[in-house]
């Protein structure tokens, strides 16, 4: 679906974001978004690791 969006649409979205939040807040918003994505990946990785450990346990222990 994102492949349908062209350069013009990206520029319009970037302009709207710039108008809504201002140039001073954009780095802060980007940093917050990056930290949120990092935390989500970390927690999902932990969840996957925990499930893999549970699957490795023998059936008698469960």
Strand content: under 5%
What would the average pLDDT be, to the nearest integer?
86
Described by the principal axes of the CA atoms, the overall outline is elongated
**Helicity level, as a percent range?**
over 70%
Pattern of helices and strands: HH
Rg, alpha carbons: 20 Å
Would you identify the regions where 5 or more consecutive residues have pLDDT less than 50?
none
Sheet with the most strands? none
The number of distinct helices, counting runs of at least 4 residues, comes to 2
> How many runs of DSSP E, i.e. beta strands?
0
Termini distance? 43 Å
Judged by helices, strands and strand pairing, the structural class is mainly alpha
Task: Give a written overview of the molecule.
With 62 residues, the chain is an all-alpha fold. The protein has a domain at 25-54. Helix content is 74%, strand content 0%. The protein has two helices and no strands. The protein is elongated, with a radius of gyration of 20 Å. The protein starts with 6 loop residues before the first helix and ends in a 6-residue tail after the last helix. The mean pLDDT is 86.
Summarize the structure.
The chain has about 60 residues and is mainly alpha-helical. The chain has helices at about 5-20, 25-55. The longest helix has about 30 residues, at about 25-55.
How is the secondary structure organized here?
Layout: H1 7-21, H2 26-56
Any key phrases for this structure?
62 residues; mainly alpha; 74% helix
């Amino acid at each position: 679906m994102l492949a349908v969006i062209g350069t013009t649409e990206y520029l319009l979205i970037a302009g709207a974001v710039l108008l809504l939040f201002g140039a001073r807040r954009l780095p802060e918003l980007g940093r917050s978004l990056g930290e949120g994505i990092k935390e989500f990946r970390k927690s999902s990785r932990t969840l996957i690791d925990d499930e893999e450990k549970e699957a490795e346990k023998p059936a008698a222990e469960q």
